[in-house]
Design brief:
Elements lengths: L45 E6 L13 E10 L5 E4 L9 E4 L7 H6 L8 E6 L21 E11 L5 H7 L6 E2 L1 H15 L5 H15 L7 E2 H4 L8
Antiparallel strand pairs: 1-5, 2-3, 2-4, 2-6, 5-6, 7-8
Helix pairs in contact: 3-4
């Protein structure tokens, strides 16, 4: 049957704290064995464009924050194992493209895609859940997956140069505790939720613990930019 069209809610969900603290997409990537994935020869993602809007921009690239609905089916019998419209009150999913928040096949399948575009993609097991499968998600071993994807929004990613420069008020290419503290205050004020002051301190401490790798009290452009954009 056809799924009734739902206008995606216009929201700033993709902004806010996600700039620093990323939500994990539900179809998270499986933990990879050391040395990355061994893709069997000739196995690749097959992409069929079902709908392309007349104005197709911006096109998605690695590090962008995407908002999409997707349905997942097992290729062998066409049974549906996942539907984003029935989860999370039907809100489309937000995730960062190309950084392993979703299975590798989806990271590949959703590159160069524009808002309003629909695709049907076939993902081989080596770019999905491989020999292990994913019992929790009802995906058997060695399963080829089919996804039908509708993309709604392509935003600048959380770890983009723009986001860094926005926080780096004195433009010294490193983020001080004060700068990030100020940024958190602005973000908290923007969403208007009441929070205990200790929450601010905990998040600030956590950000430095996870990002200040050399422990110098600053988060450098390189430390912040975990997704290895080339521009910084």
């Amino acid at each position: 049957g056809t799924v009734p069209r739902r206008r995606p809610p216009r929201s700033d969900m993709g902004r806010g704290l996600t700039l620093l603290l990323l939500p994990l997409a539900l179809l998270a990537a499986p933990a990879q064995a050391e040395g990355g994935t061994a893709t069997a020869a000739g196995e690749e993602v097959k992409i069929e464009v079902l709908h392309l809007p007349e104005v197709c921009s911006p096109k998605s690239k690695k590090g962008d924050l995407l908002n999409a609905h997707y349905d997942g089916f097992l290729a062998r019998d066409g049974s549906k194992f996942y539907c984003s419209r029935t989860q999370n009150e039907g809100h489309p999913k937000w995730f960062v493209l190309g950084v392993g928040q979703v299975i590798k096949g989806l990271d590949i399948a959703m590159m160069n895609m524009c808002p309003g575009e629909k695709r049907k993609v076939i993902i081989p097991p080596s770019l999905a859940y491989g020999q292990q499968g994913y019992a929790q998600g009802k995906i058997p071993p060695n399963a080829t997956l089919i996804f039908e994807i509708e993309l709604y929004a392509v935003n600048k990613g959380p770890r983009s140069v723009e986001a860094f420069n926005q926080i780096d008020k004195d433009s010294d290419k490193k983020l001080s505790e004060l700068e990030i503290s100020q940024y958190l205050k602005e973000e908290f004020a923007r969403d208007g939720k009441k929070r205990h002051p200790s929450v601010h301190d905990e998040i600030l401490a956590d950000i430095f613990k996870k990002n200040d790798h050399d422990g110098d009290g600053f988060i450098s452009a390189k430390e912040y930019n975990v997704y290895q954009h080339d521009e910084l």
